[in-house]
């Protein structure tokens, strides 16, 4: 299920507020894609996080990190996804992704934990 508009980043929240039909169609597409095959649960959330990392989308990484934590995915599992990006996306992108994840998992650290 899509995040409630009040939990969305400002840009997405504005779309949800001012163009609810577009937001609802977008949310329905996401739900339909999630249900299109056998991947589900934690695995589905980790795949979506990996796609957000690969797309270089800080907002999507934040969103999928929040949703994963709410679904019981551990901080260590989330951080491993960022580390798995090293050989494919490169060290700088993986570090960037790790800091984006830590923005949510460890906000008091400022995303600077080793």
UniProtKB/TrEMBL annotation:
<dbReference type="GO" id="GO:0051920">
    <property type="term" value="F:peroxiredoxin activity"/>
</dbReference>
<protein>
    <submittedName>
        <fullName>Carboxymuconolactone decarboxylase family protein</fullName>
    </submittedName>
</protein>
<dbReference type="InterPro" id="IPR003779">
    <property type="entry name" value="CMD-like"/>
</dbReference>
<dbReference type="Pfam" id="PF02627">
    <property type="entry name" value="CMD"/>
</dbReference>
<feature type="domain" description="Carboxymuconolactone decarboxylase-like">
    <location>
        <begin position="20"/>
        <end position="103"/>
    </location>
</feature>
<dbReference type="InterPro" id="IPR029032">
    <property type="entry name" value="AhpD-like"/>
</dbReference>
């Amino acid at each position: 299920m899509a995040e409630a508009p009040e939990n969305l980043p400002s840009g997405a929240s504005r779309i949800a507020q001012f163009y609810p039909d577009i937001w609802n169609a977008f949310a329905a597409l996401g739900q339909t894609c999630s249900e299109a095959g056998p991947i589900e649960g934690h695995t589905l959330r980790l795949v979506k996080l990996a796609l957000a990392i690969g797309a270089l989308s800080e907002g999507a990484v934040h969103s999928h990190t929040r949703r994963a934590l709410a679904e019981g995915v551990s901080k260590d599992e989330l951080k491993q996804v960022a580390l798995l990006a090293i050989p494919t996306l490169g060290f700088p992108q993986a570090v960037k992704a790790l800091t984006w994840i830590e923005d949510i998992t460890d906000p008091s650290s400022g995303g600077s934990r080793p």
